[in-house]
Structures are given as structure tokens and as C-alpha cells.
Design brief:
two-stranded antiparallel sheet, 182 residues, 3% strand, globular, 7 helices
């Protein structure tokens, strides 16, 4: 596939993703057929796999919204939708994690260290910034390229979105959140 064709497909998928979010319905480009047939002769690029997952994220929106809508008026229907949402989100999370395990060392070999730094930095308070001898993230782990940074951010953003869908399937009873095993 030429880079021009790849750019056209990328622009089309971005547009379709935005349209799907606004319309609150899945894109035709999220179908298994779209994600496989155009690439039967040539394999996808590393970027193509997270783009497929991006296009499938809007399939969770109607499930989540209907689940919330029927939570009190029709609990059995809400329960069915919750199970469907959980299945769909777990499948997307599994695909994301498979992608990351396959490409993590090529994209961001320092991901674990970077994540640890981010977690440490996020616990600072405003007073910590002025404390002497305390510099957050003193040893940065730069990305090898802008493309690698983009792919890592795509993974993180999609993973957070899917985890948000899974979190919406938590049950609430009498004001107490019951956490189920995801």
C-alpha cells in the first residue's frame, strides 16, 4: 500500500471515528470485514492495528448509554446490556494488550520506567514542587522517534477509554459500589 493510500485511509478513519462518536453509533469501518479485507494482499502497518481498535471503541457507546438509561426502568435489560458491554470492552482490551505485548519493545522499550515515573510524579502536592532536593522525573527516558511517542500515546489513550467502559459496568447498590472482577 502506498503512503498516499495509507494517508487517505488514515484521514477517512479519523473522520469516521469522529462521526461515530457524535452520532453515538458504530462506524461501518469498525466491521471485521473493513478491518481485514482491504489488507488481505498487504499486511497492516503497526499503526493499523491500534487504528482498528480506535474505530471499534464507538461500538461500546450505545451499550453504555442504553445500560444507564435502563438501569432503573428495566434492570434485566440493563443487566443484559452490561454483560454485552463487558464482553465487548474485554475483547478490545485483550486486543490492545496483545498489540502492546507484540510491539512494546520496538515502540517503547522504556515504557515501564516511564510509567513508573509518571505514577511517582502524579503523587506530588503543590508543596512538593518547592521542597529542596526533590526533583520529579529527573531521569527522563526519551522516545526514539515521534512515531514511537504517538503509538505509545495511542495505546495508553485507548486503554484508558476501554477501562472507562469497563468501570461503567460496576454495580451500584444502595450507594455502595460493588467491584466485580474485570
Amino acid at each position: 500500500m502506498s503512503s498516499e493510500t495509507s494517508n487517505e485511509i488514515s484521514m477517512l478513519t479519523d473522520s469516521k471515528f469522529t462521526t461515530s462518536l457524535i452520532a453515538d453509533e458504530p462506524s461501518v469501518l469498525s466491521s471485521d470485514t473493513w478491518c481485514t479485507v482491504p489488507f488481505s494482499q498487504t499486511s497492516k502497518t503497526v499503526l493499523g492495528k491500534p487504528v482498528d481498535i480506535l474505530l471499534q471503541l464507538p461500538t461500546c457507546l450505545p451499550l453504555r448509554n442504553l445500560m444507564r438509561k435502563y438501569a432503573y426502568s428495566n434492570p434485566p435489560k440493563a443487566g443484559f446490556l452490561k454483560r454485552q458491554l463487558k464482553i465487548t470492552a474485554k475483547r478490545l482490551l485483550s486486543r490492545l494488550d496483545d498489540f502492546w505485548q507484540q510491539h512494546k519493545e520496538d515502540i517503547d522499550p522504556d515504557y515501564d520506567q516511564r510509567l513508573q515515573q509518571t505514577l511517582c510524579a502524579s503523587t506530588f502536592t503543590s508543596e512538593d514542587w518547592f521542597a529542596p532536593h526533590h526533583v520529579p522525573c529527573a531521569d527522563p527516558f526519551p522516545f526514539q522517534s515521534a512515531a514511537d511517542a504517538y503509538l505509545a500515546s495511542m495505546y495508553d489513550a485507548r486503554r484508558l477509554t476501554v477501562l472507562g467502559f469497563l468501570a461503567s459496568t460496576l454495580q451500584e447498590q444502595a450507594g455502595i459500589v460493588i467491584i466485580e472482577t474485570l
